Amino acid sequence: MIPEIRNSEGERLDHTFHPGSDDCREILVIGHGVTGNKDRPALVALSEALAAAGIPSLRISFSGNGESEGSFEDSTISKEVADLGSVLDALAGWRIGYVGHSMGGAVGVLRAAGDERIETLVSLAGMVDTAEFFERKFEELTPGAGNMWDKPECPLSQTYADDMRSVATVLPQAEQIEIPWLLVHGSADEVVLPKDSRLAQGATKGRADLVELEGVDHVFSDAGTASMTACVVSWLQHNR
Question: What is the rounded CA–CA span in Å between residue 58 and residue 16?
């Protein structure tokens, strides 16, 4: 079992542990995207597929999201990078991989570029150009007066807007990634465009593996979930 996890601000991070085989000391930490949480259906399905393959995983909700403590208005890429560090602190003795969906993909790149505890990296529809994403999806909203995707529990904050623009792009960090890295992106993704994963792979000069799933959307709906989970599990089994 995994003990209680709190971030550097003392906020409890909600998590769900899926055990694998008894002798496996490798664990995959799974992080969600903006306005999401650890219980997104595709992420639950991925943990279940990993468990069936004998690989433990830990689904987490970043602070301010899901049942984790903290305010959603404070949720930013930079804060989630720090949250992920607190999760890694709690996993001493494990060999750690990280799987990040959407904005959680950008979090993974930033953390892995400077933290050797992450030994494998998977980006699911991973965000790369954060400033471009923000302007494309939220430029018409006024921070403090609008909700992201009309979700009242997810108000757009100036803190989030400033952080997305400050990060701007994770391509410089992507260039530094030398650990095994899988990028999975649906060709029909209209939230984070497939070009983000192509840019990330290009930044690694081909070191990263890229799989584009034809006709699959941003959240890997319907048959996209099975395609994504099969791809990730197979890749991990060959890169352990």
Answer: 6
* pLDDT of 237 over the 80 cut: yes
Name the residue among 127, 94, 113, 76 with its Cα closest to residue 17. 94
The Cα 55–Cα 8 span in angstroms is: 28
- Per the CB < 8 A criterion, the answer to whether 16 and 48 are in contact is no
Provide the token pair at 180.
């095994």
> CB count, 10 Å around CB of 149?
12
Give every CB contact of residue 190 below 8 A, 6+ residues apart in sequence.
Answer: 217, 218
Q: What 3-state DSSP class applies to 158? A: helix
pLDDT band at 193 (very low <50, low <70, confident <90, very high): very high
3-state secondary structure 43-76: HHHHHHHHHHCCCCEEEECCCCCCCCCCCHHHCC
Tokens representing residue 35 in the block: 């306005």
Residue 182: beta bridge partners? 122, 209
Q: What is the mean pLDDT of the chain?
A: 97
Separation between Cα atoms, residue 187 and residue 176, nearest integer Å: 26
Instruction: Look up tokens 């757009």; give the residue.
Output: 156
Mean pLDDT of 40-49: 98
